[in-house]
Amino acid sequence: MTTGGPVARPLWHGRTLAVLGIVLVAFSLRSAVASLSPVVDHIAREFPMPAAVVGLIGTAPPVCFALFGLLTPLMERRLGLERVTVIALTAVTVGLVARGVAVNATTLLIATALVFAGVGMTNILMPPLVKKYFPDRLGLMMTLYTTVMAFSTFLPPLVAVPVADAAGWRLSLSMWAVFALAGTIPWIVMLVRTRASSVPEPVEGPDRLEGSEQPERLSFESAAALSTGPIIVAPSSSRVFARLARIPLAWVLAAVFGTSASMAYTAFAWLPTILIDQTGVTPQAAGLLLSLFAFTGLPASLVVPVLIVRFRATSVLYVIGAVGAAGGLLGLLFAPDPALAWLWVLLYGLAGLLFPLALVLISIRAREPETAVALSGFVQSAGYVIAAIFPLLLGLVHTATDGWQIPLIVLVALLVASIPAGIYAGRHITVEAAWERRHGRRW
Predict the structure, then answer these.
(1) What are the CA-CA distances from residue 210 to residues 250, 415, 432 (Å)?
(2) What share of residues in the chain are helix, strand, coil (percent, to 5)?
(3) Is residue 278 part of a domain?
(4) How many domains does one find in the chain?
(5) Does residue 4 lie in a domain region?
(6) Which of 68, 141, 248, 263 is the most exposed place for a label (fewest CB within 10 A)?
(7) In 81-137, where does DSSP find H-type helix?
(8) 45-67: per-residue pLDDT in tens?
(9) Is residue 225 helix, strand or coil?
(10) Which domain holds residue 35?
(11) Distances 30 to 2, 118, 179, 325, 345 between C-alpha atoms, Å
(12) Would you say residue 398 has pLDDT above 90?
């Protein structure tokens, strides 16, 4: 069976602004988050930074991501993908500038919350934007998107402190607003062009088949048959969002994303302390090892989307990431030798496979872009609730037990328990088809 329709178009053909917009948004997502913690000591020299505020700043990202994961699909329903993207990037820009002019810990916290609100919105919007503008280039664009995000994760820690030393922490924090502001320009231009011209009719694709066979081929092999230009997307429906809660596949994707987010935020919150306490490495070495953990996400971002979209390697990649990360944690638990610390961190860094995997699944497990918006909101909201709770829970367990043995065992248990979800997520079916099979009627 073939899908028919036109062949896949060159990436830049008629979509230059969309490519630039997605790249700039991807860079802003992580640079906005990763640019604060390296200069907290510089900020504390100017005004007090209570531990409670620092803790709130640390937990703010997943909390905001979960909250705005619920709100963003409702906003998109009324305003559309591009308008909400501009609103989100504007919030990030204003928040980053506000962080740079903060006068005390409270204003810094408020500005940071605004930044993370915008980031939480764009987290939800990016997978459906990729699906809308690049249905024929899902693997390539998700690779580009996740690679830029990985690059912008370890770049800010490298430059934030030197800039703060040379020009002050205010410039170090606010300079990242340039990228968020630049990211609004392509989307604004596309909105202006759309209003200035008549709205084109959607290009007719092949007749849709019942079940999941055709959507899978469109998602994995030749989605070019859907359109020769950007798909005209109807606003997402609250009914779609409500239906997702009744589909096991949606909860499985949320578990996959939640495991990925929990591993990342736990590492950034506790890994240096775990390394120092367990292996006896110096704080400087622990910082470098944390950078090694973050760096492992870069090659993962390059290969995972392509392997999933072209070869459907979801289950295999998930097992490799989960088992490898569990092996690294067990190494820290049973062989805490400082000479082996880099090996255990590198293995733990295989958890970086799970993040691009989860993002790609959000795109290809939805048949329509408007469903992808709701699915993205559902999956990321539920996942970030887990990520907001888990690092705090580990800290409480560490305090209660005065050690890292039980917290490490808990992390391993989470990874092992998530493997069935990762395997289930590899099933070649969309949420719409899952609904139709389960309830016997059209989505």
Answers:
(1) 20, 35, 10
(2) 80, 0, 20
(3) yes
(4) 1
(5) no
(6) 248
(7) 81-100, 105-133
(8) 899 887 667 667 767 778 888 88
(9) helix
(10) 16-198+211-439
(11) 39, 12, 11, 22, 21
(12) no
Burial 407-437 (b: 16+ CB within 10 A, else e): bbebbbebbeebbebbebbbebbbbbbbbbe
Amino acid letter, 63: V
Average pLDDT of 362-375? 84
- Report the length, in residues, of the chain: 443
283: exposed, middle or buried (Cβ count in 10 Å: 0-12, 13-18, 19+): exposed
Positive or negative torsion for Cα 81, 123, 100, 151: negative
pTM: 0.71
Tell me if 266 sits within 8 A of 391, measured CB to CB: yes
The two tokens of residue 269 are 């919150």
Tell me the per-residue pLDDT of 307-332, one tens digit each, with 9 for 90 and over.
998 888 999 999 999 999 999 999 99
Here the CATH number for the domain that contains residue 375 is 1.20.1250.20
8 inside domain: no
